C-alpha cells in the first residue's frame, strides 16, 4: 500500500516545513513502515548547514524516521488522532552524509508497545548504503482540545 503526501498529512500532525516524508511505500499498520524523503537542494535547512557543503542535519534524518513511525502507528483506528512525542533516541549512528539529490529510504519496525509508550528500530539508507540507524522511543498522547 502506498500513501502519498496528502494522506500523510491526514494521518500525522506535521506540516511544511517540518513534514519530512514524501511517501510511504510499505506499511503494516501498527508494526512497520517504509517511506521516502527526496532530498533537494531547495531544502530550508541547507541555507545554513553548511554553506559550501550541503549536508542534511542528522537530527532531521531522525525526525524523518520518526515521522514514518508515526504514520505506521497513527494509521490504525486505536491511535488515530494521537500526538506523537519523542521519548528518547538510543544508539543512533550516522554512517554517511545525506546531500541534495539523495533519496532517503526510511524504515521503522516496532519493537515494543505498552499502552501509549513504545520503542522501535529505525534505519535510513541511500541507494542501499546505510546513512543512519538506531532506536527511538515515543509516547502517543491525546491531541490537545481545539478551541
Structural account:
The structure is a single chain. This protein is of the alpha+beta class and 147 residues long. The chain has a single domain, classed as Thiol Ester Dehydrase, Chain A (Roll). It is 16% helix and 44% strand. It contains two helices and seven strands, in the order βαββαββββ. It has a seven-stranded antiparallel beta sheet. A hairpin with a 2-residue loop joins β5 and β6. The longest helix has 17 residues, at 58-74. The N and C termini lie far apart (35 Å).
Shape: globular
- Unreliable runs: none
**Helix and strand pattern:** EHEEHEEEE
The strand count comes to 7
Q: What's the CATH first level?
A: Alpha Beta
Q: What is the alpha-carbon Rg in Å?
A: 15 Å
Average pLDDT, to the nearest integer? 94
Question: What brief labels describe this structure?
Answer:
single chain; 147 residues; alpha+beta; Thiol Ester Dehydrase, Chain A; 7-stranded antiparallel β-sheet; 7 strands; 44% strand
Give the structure's gist in a few sentences:
With 147 residues, the chain is α+β, with helices and mostly antiparallel strands. The protein has two helices and seven strands.
Layout of strands and helices, then pairs:
Elements: E1 3-4, H1 5-11, E2 23-28, E3 32-38, H2 58-74, E4 82-94, E5 103-114, E6 117-126, E7 129-142
Antiparallel strand pairs: 1-2, 2-3, 3-5, 4-7, 5-6, 6-7
Amino acid at each position: 500500500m502506498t500513501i502519498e503526501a496528502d494522506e500523510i498529512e491526514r494521518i500525522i500532525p506535521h506540516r511544511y516545513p517540518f513534514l519530512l516524508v514524501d511517501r510511504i511505500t510499505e506499511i503494516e499498520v501498527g508494526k512497520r513502515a517504509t517511506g521516502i524523503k527526496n532530498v533537494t537542494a531547495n531544502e530550508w535547512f541547507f541555507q545554513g548547514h553548511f554553506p559550501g557543503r550541503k549536508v542534511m542535519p542528522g537530527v532531521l534524518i531522525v525526525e524523518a524516521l520518526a515521522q514514518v513511525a508515526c504514520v505506521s502507528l497513527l494509521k490504525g483506528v486505536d491511535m488515530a488522532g494521537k500526538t506523537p512525542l519523542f521519548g528518547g533516541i538510543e544508539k543512533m549512528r550516522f554512517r554517511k552524509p545525506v546531500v541534495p539529490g539523495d533519496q532517503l529510504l526510511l524504515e521503522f519496525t516496532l519493537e515494543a508497545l505498552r499502552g501509549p509508550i513504545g520503542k522501535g528500530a529505525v534505519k535510513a539508507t541511500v541507494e542501499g548504503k546505510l546513512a543512519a540507524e538506531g532506536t527511538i522511543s515515543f509516547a502517543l498522547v491525546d491531541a490537545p482540545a481545539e478551541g
